[in-house]
């Protein structure tokens, strides 16, 4: 099995039974704040993109590069599609021209032509990436590889049970905005950053120890920051609180815990992996490259400057009424939100800095009040400060995931009273009906016993959440005779038998309100 490094979490896997390109990312992401490092834009993508299969682990834009996928990856490739709770990834890939999809059942081995085997583990918590993350296991001729990339499963047992793994590729560096953007004294920011850096490595060591693969490849980070406003986030200034250590730092830290099997892949590096070992060739010496990291970053900064400036010029949309558009888009979601709104528990304030760099408009997303309104000089627990132009752009393009855009860009500052609140970020990555309903249903299931809450609809007692994507049937359920339709996606169910009429599986629990005994989920009422 040949593994060619193509930057960040991207790689090409070649076997005699076919090739797989994974997570190809080249263009800047998150408001032009993140770039791949080392630079991979000068690779021969015309050749690399001629592949048999494409695997995109999740929709984060440092993994899902729409422009690069459209321009450089063969549309004859079959997409290995994780079993995610929404169809967003498939929909976006179809818009880019991909037509062949293999929908991999979660955690089930699929044998492809020629003896190539794959298995995809999909993680589907609202906190996993943008509503989903995944890992890819590959086997050919006895050689096994796990591309874990960013995914954080509870354990790796499902992969270990398939046989000894020879190559384990996983994240080790930061991919978040904490604590750099928080309005804290520098000493506190450094202390929190140091703790996070240590936790990142500790998590990586745990995964490595769980799988015990022959070879470990540090991937999926760090990005580099080339805008002058963000350049200080690169780990080149001797800051022990920097959360973006690079691959050379990984090797050094790994050695301290006894690790001797680490292999770095630069863009263009090639590792030949067998059951007996691995041999790797590099386009330049690895140690020499990282010894000159600052020079490489400074050269990249000048070369990419026109790209950054062009992106910045596209963000302003003065015709957008920010308060009005936020009310129009967010208030209906607030009205539907139960678990996320309760979890946030208070107002969230956005301070929007005007084009002049001084004037500020403050807008509150009031979760208890279920409204978006001007700030009324009240106390808030969560506050974000960013350029008005960034919010204008998000509203202009209809972005449904502000986490996978604004927050990951690090182009904001934040303050909070109390601990981190996952519900704040879960809500702002769910600014669509489909995502919000899924997240609400997920939290509903994990707050209660699975599907424990019932509602009554037109003489029927039925579980509150649609078995498909957990939509609230008290809002979206329509009963006609013995048939229930979930209006969110049009799925239909025969309530007498519990059978789903739209797809295999997804049985519903229902019984007539005047029945003596309710039927267990999926069983017919006698």
From TrEMBL:
InterPro entries, A to Z: RibonucZ/Hydroxyglut_hydro, Rieske_2Fe-2S, Rieske_2Fe-2S_sf, SCP2_Rv3818
Keyword terms of this UniProt record: 2Fe-2S, Iron, Iron-sulfur, Metal-binding
Gene3D superfamilies in the cross-refs: Ribonuclease Z/Hydroxyacylglutathione hydrolase-like (3.60.15.10), Rieske [2Fe-2S] iron-sulphur domain (2.102.10.10)
Keyword Iron-sulfur tagged: yes
Protein name: Rieske 2Fe-2S domain-containing protein
Lineage summary: Bacteria, Bacillati, Actinomycetota, Actinomycetes, Micromonosporales
Domain Rieske, chain residue ranges per copy: 461-501
SUPFAM superfamilies, alphabetized: ISP domain (SSF50022), Metallo-hydrolase/oxidoreductase (SSF56281)
Database matches in PROSITE patterns: RIESKE (PS51296)
Xref: Pfam families: Rieske (PF00355), SCP2_Rv3818 (PF25451)
Domain of life: Bacteria
């Amino acid at each position: 099995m040949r593994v060619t490094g193509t930057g960040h979490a991207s790689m090409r896997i070649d076997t005699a039974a076919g090739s797989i390109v994974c997570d190809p990312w080249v263009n800047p992401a998150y408001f032009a704040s993140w770039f791949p490092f080392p630079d991979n834009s000068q690779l021969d993508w015309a050749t690399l993109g001629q592949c048999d299969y494409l695997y995109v682990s999740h929709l984060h834009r440092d993994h899902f590069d729409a422009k690069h996928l459209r321009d450089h990856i063969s549309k004859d490739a079959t997409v290995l599609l994780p079993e995610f709770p929404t169809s967003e990834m498939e929909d976006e890939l179809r818009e880019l021209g991909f037509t062949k999809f293999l929908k991999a059942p979660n955690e089930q081995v699929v044998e492809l032509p020629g003896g190539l085997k794959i298995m995809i583990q999909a993680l589907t918590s609202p906190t996993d990436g943008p509503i989903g993350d995944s890992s890819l296991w590959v086997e050919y001729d006895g050689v096994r590889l796990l591309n874990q990339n960013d995914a954080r499963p509870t354990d790796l047992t499902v992969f270990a049970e398939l046989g000894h793994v020879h190559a384990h590729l996983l994240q080790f560096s930061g991919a978040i905005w904490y604590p750099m953007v928080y309005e804290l004294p520098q000493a506190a920011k450094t202390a929190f950053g140091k703790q996070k850096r240590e936790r990142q490595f500790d998590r990586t060591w745990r995964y490595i120890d769980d799988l015990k693969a022959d070879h470990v490849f540090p991937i999926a980070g760090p990005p580099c920051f080339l805008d002058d406003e963000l350049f200080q986030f690169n780990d080149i200034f001797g800051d022990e609180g920097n959360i973006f250590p690079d691959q050379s730092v990984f090797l050094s830290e790994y050695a301290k815990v006894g690790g001797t099997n680490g292999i770095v892949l630069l863009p263009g590096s090639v590792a030949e992996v067998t059951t007996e070992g691995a041999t790797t060739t590099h386009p330049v010496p690895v140690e020499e490259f990282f010894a000159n990291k600052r020079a490489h970053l400074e050269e990249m900064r000048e070369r990419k400057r026109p790209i950054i400036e062009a992106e910045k010029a596209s963000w302003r949309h003065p015709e957008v009424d920010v308060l009005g558009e936020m009310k129009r888009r967010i208030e209906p979601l607030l009205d539907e939100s139960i678990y996320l709104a309760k979890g946030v528990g208070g107002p969230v304030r956005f301070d929007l800095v005007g084009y002049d760099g001084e004037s500020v408009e403050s807008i509150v997303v009031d979760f208890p009040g279920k409204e978006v309104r001007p700030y009324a000089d009240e106390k808030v627990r969560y506050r974000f400060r960013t350029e008005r132009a960034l919010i204008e752009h998000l509203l202009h393009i209809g972005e449904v995931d502000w986490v996978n855009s604004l927050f990951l860009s690090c182009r904001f500052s934040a303050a909070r009273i109390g601990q981190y609140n996952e519900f704040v970020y879960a809500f702002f990555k769910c600014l669509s009906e489909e995502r919000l309903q899924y997240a609400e249903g997920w939290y509903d299931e994990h707050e209660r016993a699975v599907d424990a809450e019932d509602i009554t609809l037109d003489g029927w007692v039925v579980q509150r959440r649609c078995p498909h994507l957990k939509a609230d049937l008290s809002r979206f359920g329509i009963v006609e005779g013995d048939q229930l339709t979930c209006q969110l996606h049009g799925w239909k169910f025969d309530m007498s038998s519990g059978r789903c009429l739209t797809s295999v599986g997804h049985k519903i629990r229902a019984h007539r309100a005047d029945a003596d005994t309710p039927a267990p989920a999926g069983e017919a009422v006698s």
